[in-house]
Every structure is written in C-alpha cells, then in structure tokens.
Amino acid sequence: MASEKVLSHLKNHQQKHVEQLCDFLRIPSISSVSAHNADTKRAAKFVSSELKELGLAVEVIDMGGHPLVYAETEIRPDRKTLLFYGHYDVQPVDPLDLWDNPPFEPVIKDGIIYARGSSDDKGQLYTHIKALEAYILQGEELPVNVKFIIEGEEEAGGESIYKFTEQNTEKLSCDAVVVSDTTLYNETTPGICYSLKGMAYMEITVQGPGMDLHSGSYGGSVQNPGNALAEIIAKLKDADGRCLVPGFYDDVLELEQDERDGFAELGYTDEILCDETGAPAAFGEKGFTTLERMWARPTCDVNGIACGYGGEGAKTIIPARGLAKVSMRLVPNQDPDTIAAAFSAYVKEIAPTGVKVEVSNHHNAAPVLVHRKSEMMNAGMIALEKGFGAKPVFIREGGSIPIVGTFQDCLKSPVLLLGYGLNTDNIHSPNEKFHLDNFFRGIRTSAILMTEAAK
Ligand code: BES
Ligand code: MN
Ligand code: MN
Predict the structure, then answer these.
(1) Residue nearest to atom 15 of ligand 1 (CA)
(2) N or C: which end of the chain has fewer CB within 10 A?
(3) How much is the pLDDT for 75?
C-alpha cells in the first residue's frame, strides 16, 4: 500500500486534479487531421512540462510524425522499473452535431466528465502522472524507477513509436510495462485485462465506368459497382456469422476451459448488451457466448461503405465506383499480414466480372496475450483491489493497442493492462465521457501499484 501521506495527498487534491485534466482535455489533439498538428504539439508539451516540473529527465522526440514524450526519474539499479505508456492524441469529433457540449470544452455532470479524450486516453494516462506527482510533492521516496513513453499517433496508425521502441530497447527496459487505455469490467468491478485483439484494416475499391452513367440509357449494359460491392461483402460472412476468408480461423488460439468458465461466471447477458448498445438483438458466430465472441473470436466487419447517391430524393445513376472499409479484429495467434493477404486474395477471387477490384491494407496490429500468473500480475491485482475497493476479475478486450505487441517482442517485459474506462464511455463517438470516481480510483491504483510492484 502506498503511504498514508501519498494517499491523503491524493484525497486532498481531487479538485485540483480535475481542473488540470480539464486543461489537458481542452487541447484538440486530433492526430489524424493535419490542421491540428499544432495542437498535438501542444498536448505533447502539456505532458512534457508537467513531467519536467516533477524533476524527471524529459525528451520530446521527433520521429517524423507527432512528437513522442519520453521521461524518467533517477534510475537506481536497486529498484524495479515501471514503464508507463499512454497516448495524448484523440479521435476526430464528427458528427459534431450529436455532441451535447463542444468536445473540447469539458463539462462535468453528475460526477462524469464529458470531453473528447476524457476516457481514451488523456484521463487514463493522466492518472499515472498524478500518482507519481503525489510521491514527489510529498517528498516520499519512490519505491520504483518510473519511465514514461507517451505517443501522439495511436489513433492514426502512426509509425513513430514503433521505430523508437525498436531503436531504444535499452532505454525502455523495465520490469513491467503499465498501460491504462482499456476498461473496467463494469461500473463496480475492476478488471485486469490479459488479451487485446489485433487488427487488419482493409479497403476495397470497385471501379466501373469512367463516370456515373444514366441508369436508363446504360442500364443493363455494364456491371454496377454498387451491386458488385454488395456481392463481395455478402460473401465475407455466412449466415451463422462465420468469416468465409479461407484460412481465417487456422491460427486462432481456442479458449481454455477455465477461461470459458471465468467468462461465464461474470454473468454478462445479451440483455446487458442490448441495454448498453441499443441494438435490438445480439448476433454473432454460432457456438460461442456473446462475451466469448467479443473477447476471443476474430471478427470481420464493414466499417463504412460509399457508393453512388445517398442524398435526398432520387437520382438515377449507375455509380462509377464504390468503396468499402473492412476491419478484421484478430485474436492470438493470428498474424495480421497473413490474414490481410488471405483477405485480398479471396476478394479478388470472388469479385464479379466487369469491374476492376482493388484491395489495400491500411494498418495492422498484432493481437496480445499476457500470462495471467506472474508477480507483476499479482501486484496489479492488489493495486486494483485496494484502489477500487473491489476484487478485480480477469477480462479480455475487443479493442487494440497496436504498440503493446511490439513492447512484448522488443522489451520482453510483462505488460499490465489496468483499464479505468467503461465500454459505455462513448470512446471514438460523440459525448465521450469518463467517471471522475474512476479517475480518482485510477490515480490511487497507480500510486499503490508503485509500492506493490517494488515488493
Ligand atoms: N484505447 C483504445 C483501445 C481499446 C478500445 C481498448 C476499447 C479497450 C477497449 C485505443 O485507443 C484504440 O482506439 N485503438 C484502435 C487501434 C486501431 C486504430 C489500430 C482500435 O482498437 O480501434
Ligand atoms: Mn486509447
Ligand atoms: Mn482509441
């Protein structure tokens, strides 16, 4: 347990921490929109300045994209080292008209803070900075060496952090990587996450005639890219929700019986799902429970389709082209490059004649699996239990954090995924939010972890 001094410091500074988080949230650091490049720089500056003020050695690193922030306390060889990872960049805000308040003007209502980035990931990342600050301001000796690597391209598929990690394994060496960019199990139960999904993100373009054609004059004479695209998409999955890309399931690591039992004990129901999402019914691959599908089965989903006329009223055309974005969320031990190649080959094979079909691969991420039994996992469990006042459960996530797999490969250290968000925080969506209680408990957890990890 962290000292009384540290814990009471945290209690006495809650208001201040919220105000400071608001300042962080006011910076519109949208990494995928170049008009916001100055803002991503400002967000990097915000975290680097705070860490500098705490006396850490700080570097702001330009690897050609948005800046990375690296910081470390004095490194003493007799202490263990924790490396905290987070991202200061945020998702775009559209559709803007669905926000109840402007996304970069944080509003607090009923103990919940609303703003883009509040849960993903500024609010979660900030918990570690405030926990470290408590030790330093209270003059408490740090139980561990602390390093931070904070990036600004997580939401944009940027390369900077990969390059930096591969070139700086010594600098980043640690006894555990700590990441708070996931979720609790639910409002009352913290979770320790031991698997993230990976990803292969694909784009299909279907090119027909050189321009939109009058659908009467030329109807029946050429292949329609919209119909062709629909045919392709219809063949991606069967009626039971299984992906039809050949070899798709070959390398899927099946769930252990104790994992299935553990999931079942959590008591997640389709009713909860429908309640959380507003969906009329649950749906997915036959033979698996909803939680199994969400956490441990690969998926193949259309993310967007654009083709022809979608405006008011009717417009009679045969569209010139169509495009679809498709994400495949992958599980251990699927390889994103292999899956991307299998997808491309399959789409080419099933493409109707009379159109030109191209498939490209946007970005990939490796799936992650963490050992459930380790000293660090125990330290994380204890910290979560004391920080949240409730016993944590083992969970997996459907989301991806691309750099985590690279940390595992390059640094060979265990990864602790201590998430403080909720699935219902509306991340990537209008009205993103973060429960202040979870913010405070997250800070406590992080402070306690620093002590527990030292043991
Ligand atoms: N923090 C999320 C990942 C996440 C989402 C974890 C939900 C747990 C639950 C992260 O910022 C994110 O959005 N990742 C992207 C990665 C993609 C761009 C490669 C994702 O999962 O879509
Ligand atoms: Mn995130
Ligand atoms: Mn995100």
Answers:
(1) 400
(2) C
(3) 98
